Structures are given as structure tokens and as C-alpha cells.
Amino acid sequence: MTRLAIIAANENIWSLGCWSRALPALKDAGHEVAALWAVEDAGKGHENANARYIAAFGRWNFIKFGLFGTMVRLCQLMGRRPMSLRALAQKHGVKYLETPDPNDAAIADWMEKEGVDIALIQVPQIIKPPLLEKAQLINHHAGLLPANRGIYPYFWAVLNGSPQGVSLHLVNEKIDAGPLLYQEMEMEPQELASMTVFEVGALREYPARVLDALSNLKRKMIQPPPGVSESYNSFPAREDYKAFRKQRGHIIKLRDVMAQAARLVF
Questions:
Q1: Residue 151 · residue 36 · CB < 8 Å
Q2: How far apart (Å, rounded) are the C-alpha atoms in residues 223 and 45?
């Protein structure tokens, strides 16, 4: 049994969809979840976040993502699922804590005091000391590392013609560059139909993959597939999106709005 913590973005679509599956799976596998730390959504309060997204991907994708988020919340409500990370933690008897920043010294102090030295993280912020020095942090990246480190790995893999995949790795000072604990690259064609389909599938499979990563943490690190070159990408520009579309890439299709919302929740 491993005693660990979860450090997750306090967000009710993707983050809640992931941990609604992963938290009970971890407990069923015999791991003790000492606490769920909810980190303030990095997008809140940033007035230019939506404008930046629209500038890169266009209004139609923005509207479809808005509809997708609404459908996810309706599915959660109709399915009587927890509507927040707080409610999820309460349902499973896990201590719930909040912080405005994953680099808040309070988390590192708590980890040390509670004797918790492993944390599963899914936050957009870059993790720094002292937390890096207090625990082994396992991050989920929806890309085949070391290729396409950084944001939107599916997007850049389509644009650059590199293989798709999912990786779990230890966190170090460099973005998405720590030792690998798990990789999956055997993707069915239907799982690659759009970025939304791919990311929903990655979150659905996260519980099984993180259990393998925890096992590998005790046994061995893994090596990336041969021929996968290291690369790093930042937020796309409009010209990048146009090139992505020329490669027949899709951010979110209209049919994804309902189908993938239900798939994320149920």
C-alpha cells in the first residue's frame, strides 16, 4: 500500500472527470489517499485567456468547447455525480484542502508533517521547490515524451507528424522532462479523431495507467521508444492552427459535444 496525496486543478470539467474515476480506483487498489489538494483554476481571473484561445482556434471551437462544458455539467447533474472536487473527496472520505498555488509552502510542509512523499499532480503550473524537494511527484502528460513537451501535445503531434501517446513521469525542474514511469502509444484510430476525443480517452484510462506508474516507481523507470525526438511547444498561434487543419486535425467536432461529455462523465 502507498500513502499518497492528489494535487489537482480545482476545475469541474476535466479535473473532476479524471479524479472521479481515479480516486476510487486508487482506494480499491489498496492505496491510501491522505488528502486531495485543490489548486485554484489558473484560468480564473485571466480576462485574456478566452481571447487568446479564440485568437488561436477561432470562435467556433470556443463555442463548441463552451457547449461541451455545459453538457458535462448536465451529465454530472443527471447522473448524480459529485459536482466539485470537494464533494468528490467527501464522498470517498478523503481529506479536502485548498490552496491558491501548488507551490504554496503549506503543501510541502503538510507533506513532510504527514509523512506523505508521493503526490499525483494534474495542474497547469510549473512545480518548484520546496515541493520538488519534499516528494516524488507523478505527472500525467497526454503526449509521447520526450516529444511535444509543454501545452497541447496532441495538437503539435498532428502538426509535426509525430506519434501520439500518453506518458506518466516524475516531475523535475524542467517541464515534462522527468524520468518516465509509464507510456502508451497503441492508440486506436477512433481515439485520434479530435483533440477532445483523445483527451477524454486519456482521462478515462488514467486510473489504470497511474496504477502501473506507481508500480514502476518501486521497480524501474522506462525508456521512451526509439526514434522519438525531444521537442517543446508553447501556446499555438493562428498560423499554427491553420497548418494543423491542413493536416486534417480537429480540436473538437460538433458531435463531440454530447458524445464526449457523456463519455467523460459516464
A1: no
A2: 40
Burial of residue 131 (CB within 10 Å: 0-12, 13-18, 19+) is buried
Helices 195-204 & 206-219 angle (0-180, nearest 10): 60
The CATH number given to whatever domain includes residue 199 is: 3.40.50.12230
pLDDT digits 0-9 by tens, 136-165:
999 999 999 999 999 999 999 999 999 999
**Parent domain of 126:** 3-265
- For residue 261, which of 6, 120, 79 has the smallest C-alpha distance? 79
The number of domains in the chain is 1
Contact 71, 129 (CB under 8 A): no
At 42 the pLDDT is: 60
Strands (E), the chain: 3-10, 32-40, 96-99, 118-122, 136-141, 149-150, 166-170, 180-184, 232-233
Say if residue 51 is exposed, middle or buried (CB neighbours under 10 Å; 0-12, 13-18, 19+): exposed
Rounded to an integer, what distance in angstroms lies between the CA atom of residue 93 and that of residue 190?
A: 37
Three cell numbers, residue 88? 468528490
**Digit-coded pLDDT (tens) for 205-220:** 999 999 999 999 988 7
Tell me the per-residue pLDDT of 55-84, one tens digit each, with 9 for 90 and over.
999 999 999 999 999 999 999 999 999 999
Whether the link from the prior residue into 130 is cis, omega within 30° of 0, is yes
Report the b/e string of 196-233 with b at 16+ CB within 10 A: bbbbbbbbbebbebbbebbebbeeeebebeeebeebeb
